[in-house]
Amino acid sequence: MSDIPVFKPLITQDEISAAVESLEMGWLGMGSYVAEFEAKIAEVIQAPDRHVSAVSTGTAALHVALLVAGVEPGDEVIVSAFNCSADYQAISWVGADIVFCDCDDDTLEMDMDKAETLVSNKTKAIIIMDYDCIISDYDRVDAFAKKHDLRVIHDACHSFGSSFKGKPVGSYSDICVFSFDPVKTITCLDGGAVVVRTEEEQKYVRELRLLGMQQPSEVMYQNKRAWTFDVERVGFRYHMLNLHAAIGVRQIEKLEQIRSTRVAASRRYSEHLAPISEVRTPNSEFNEVNPFLYYIRVPAEDRDDLRTYLKEKGIDTGIHWQPGHWFSLWKDCRKGDLSVTDAVGNEILSLPLHSMMDLALVDQVSDAISQFFSNKVTSHDG
User: Fold this and answer.
1) DSSP per residue, 127-172
2) How many CB atoms lie within 10 A of CB 361?
């Protein structure tokens, strides 16, 4: 294991005690802790007109969200080519066709001007992802969706606890999904959530997550189950377990601490790295965000050498992500001009970012990056 890993979960005695308590309760499936976790999410997003349902993973949330949006075989879904492969898999699972859109060079969010050129009579929905520390311009997304009569799945798997123009993420979008997997800012070990507008859509989500069973969640939230119920639709085994929810509850209670320390580390990185001409830092002041990761962009010809140099110094790095159209499974999907995405895919590099991160570690990583490029200049001069 690297001395400084890219990801490091904030696990304290609080989470360990919660896990033990949930196991000692003896109800291992979906139960009372899941209800508590959903209530905690609702408190964070501050939206009494929205309805929250916890699921097993963020990918399950994406799959369910597409079904709620009515996406079917033969439909098209526009999605950024710079995104997690989970989004592409979820589109494939519902039988729809992926349409790849380029990302914006400054924000790495979907380029909405280029999205305009990709709409067809088959377009049913659009997936909008918040990348790391920059929140998508949802006012523009909403106008785009209304213009073309599209459903929007807001992939907020990076942005739980963030806001857009003062509005908490999850409070303003059409269908919003969160992830609480092992490396996210808030972890349940693994988990996700779907936020919808209506009670009818919530009922649909809750049937989908539990094998299509019309078993009332209110009964299971009492650590009980109904033995007679109907099944009217195909469903999945996507429900969240009490153990995962119990950990998630304790994590959300630390949200402000998590957010403030990650913001401090991100700002420290930008302060140290911005003066390095070869390094491009995120276009963010980190004012309304709960940063999931800290990324930089470096010249493509330097990235692998920089990663090796940092690894030798005990500093791990990551690549988030390889563009979707680079994968064999999706290389033939319909797409527009992806020149920015292609460049970003070769330049992007994730640096270590942890909750409660010692800022001395940020300085250590930053100094190593500075030294790498100084050495490069010196060797060229020599």
Assistant:
1) EEE-BTTB---HHHHHHHHHHHT-EEEEE-TT-TT-EETTEETTSS
2) 17
Q: Give Cα separations from 105 to 176, 267, 281 (angstroms).
A: 24, 20, 12
Three-class SS state of 97: strand
DSSP, res 176: E
pLDDT at position 118, please? 98
pLDDT digits (tens, 9 = 90+) for 160-198: 999 999 999 999 999 999 999 999 999 999 999 999 999
Task: Flag whether the pTM goes above 0.85.
Answer: yes
| Phi, then psi, of 81 in degrees rounded to 5 | -70, -15
| AA identity, residue 188 | C
Q: Which two tokens stand for residue 278?
A: 């070869």
Give kind and range of the element (H or E) at residue 34.
helix 32-45
Picking from 168, 84, 181, 187, the residue whose alpha carbon sits closest to that of residue 127 is 84
165 class by beta-carbon count within 10 Å (0-12 exposed, 13-18 middle, 19+ buried): exposed
DSSP E strands in the chain: the ranges are 51-55, 76-80, 97-101, 123-129, 151-155, 163-164, 167-168, 175-179, 192-196, 294-297, 334-335, 348-351
φ, ψ for residue 259, nearest 5 deg: -65, -50
Q: What residue has token string 């539990």?
A: 210
* Domain range 13-101+109-252, CATH architecture: 3-Layer(aba) Sandwich (3.40)
Say yes or no to pLDDT of 366 above 60. yes
Contact 179, 192 (CB under 8 A): yes
List pLDDT tens digits, range 53-84. Answer: 999 999 999 999 999 999 999 999 999 999 99
d(CA 248, CA 38) in angstroms, rounded, equals 10
Q: What local confidence, expressed as pLDDT, does residue 376 receive? A: 83
CA 67, chain centre distance (Å): 19
- What is the band of 379 on the pLDDT scale with cuts at 50, 70, 90? low
Domain limits, the chain: 13-101+109-252, 256-373
- C-alpha to C-alpha distance for 241 and 245, rounded to whole angstroms: 6
Domain 256-373 adopts which CATH fold?
Aspartate Aminotransferase, domain 1 (3.90.1150)
